[in-house]
């Protein structure tokens, strides 16, 4: 094989590590910076590429498996769980809710400790990267109980944009759902990005702190049929629709390239 043909199969290390379901691209870059990644026995560097068919890649001395069975699960995350695979404070993490799954999987996106709702878990690093990248604007729909009687002006402000410490944030849709007996209000908010505690900070900015938050939909995934803590494997139909949100070919392997 010519050198040019060999190079055509090369991909960046962080992408290969992500495809293997080891970590996100960002975490993979951190591993490379920490000198934990080797290619053919030599310490890797940022920006380095490798051929998955020819090169041997290892992390912490353990070879990684680049070809694997990709799995996808939809979880109804309860409150009181960290959206992570581990926690340095020994709090419950979402993967604890899937003890029967022996393959390494990790959650896609953010859903904080006090929030509940739909969460995707997978070992498909490329799909996870695409879903969470801001450029794809994947919609996330939340039902939020806020303090007080929120008015239409505040809902408009959420759509027009509120200033947060990491920049302006705005909803693509807001809707008043119903008041509660305690004088508070349930609203619906749709965002297309996933900043840390974004819904809570936005509601704080318009003077209506969040009392309860539930993500009812992420792209096409929902939790209508799941109790908190329950999970279900994605069907082929679910996966096909999910890929359509990020414009991926319906039949191509990802790694190769309102409720009632």
The number of domains: 3
The end-to-end span amounts to: 58 Å
CATH architecture term of the largest domain: 2-Layer Sandwich
Rg is: 20 Å
What would the average pLDDT be, to the nearest integer?
88
Please give the number of β-strands: 17
- CATH homologous superfamily label of the largest domain: Pseudouridine synthase I, catalytic domain, N-terminal subdomain
Q: Spell the H/E element sequence.
A: HEHHEEEEEEEEHEHEEEEHEEEH
Sum up the overall morphology in one term. elongated
- What share of residues is helical? 10-25%
Q: Count helical runs.
A: 7
> Beta-strand percentage?
25-35%
Description:
This protein has 260 residues and is an alpha+beta fold. The chain folds into 3 domains: 3-63, RNA-binding S4 domain (Structural Genomics Hypothetical 15.5 Kd Protein In mrcA-pckA Intergenic Region, Chain A, Roll), CATH 3.10.290; 72-134 and 223-256, Pseudouridine synthase I, catalytic domain, N-terminal subdomain (Alpha-Beta Plaits, 2-Layer Sandwich); 139-218, 2-Layer Sandwich (Pseudouridine synthase). The protein has 7 helices and 17 strands. The strands form 4 sheets. Strands 7, 8, 9, 10, 13, 14, 15, 16 and 17 form a 9-stranded mixed sheet that branches. A 4-stranded antiparallel sheet has the order 3-2-5-6, with no helix packed on it. Strand 2 (37-39) and strand 3 form a beta hairpin.
């Amino acid at each position: 094989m010519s050198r040019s043909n060999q190079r055509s199969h090369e991909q960046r290390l962080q992408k290969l590590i992500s495809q293997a379901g080891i970590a996100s691209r960002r975490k993979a870059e951190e591993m490379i910076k920490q000198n934990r990644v080797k290619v053919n026995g030599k310490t890797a560097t940022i920006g380095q590429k490798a051929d998955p068919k020819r090169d041997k890649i290892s992390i912490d001395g353990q070879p990684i498996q680049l070809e694997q069975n990709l799995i996808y699960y939809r979880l109804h995350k309860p409150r009181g769980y960290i959206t992570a695979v581990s926690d340095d404070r020994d709090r419950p993490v979402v993967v604890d809710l899937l003890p029967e799954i022996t393959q390494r999987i990790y959650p896609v996106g953010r859903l904080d400790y006090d929030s509940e709702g739909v969460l995707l878990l997978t070992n498909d690093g490329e799909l996870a990267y695409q879903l969470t990248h801001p450029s794809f604007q994947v919609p996330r729909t939340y039902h939020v109980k806020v303090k007080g009687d929120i008015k239409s002006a505040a809902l408009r402000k959420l759509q027009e944009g509120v200033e947060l410490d990491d920049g302006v944030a705005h909803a693509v849709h807001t809707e008043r759902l119903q008041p509660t007996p305690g004088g508070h209000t349930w609203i619906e908010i749709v965002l297309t990005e996933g900043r840390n505690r974004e819904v809570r900070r936005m509601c704080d900015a318009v003077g209506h702190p969040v009392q309860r938050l539930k993500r009812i939909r992420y792209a096409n995934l929902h939790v209508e049929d799941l109790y908190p803590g329950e999970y279900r494997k994605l069907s082929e139909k679910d996966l096909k629709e999910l890929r359509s949100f990020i414009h991926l070919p319906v039949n191509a392997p990802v790694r190769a390239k309102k409720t009632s």
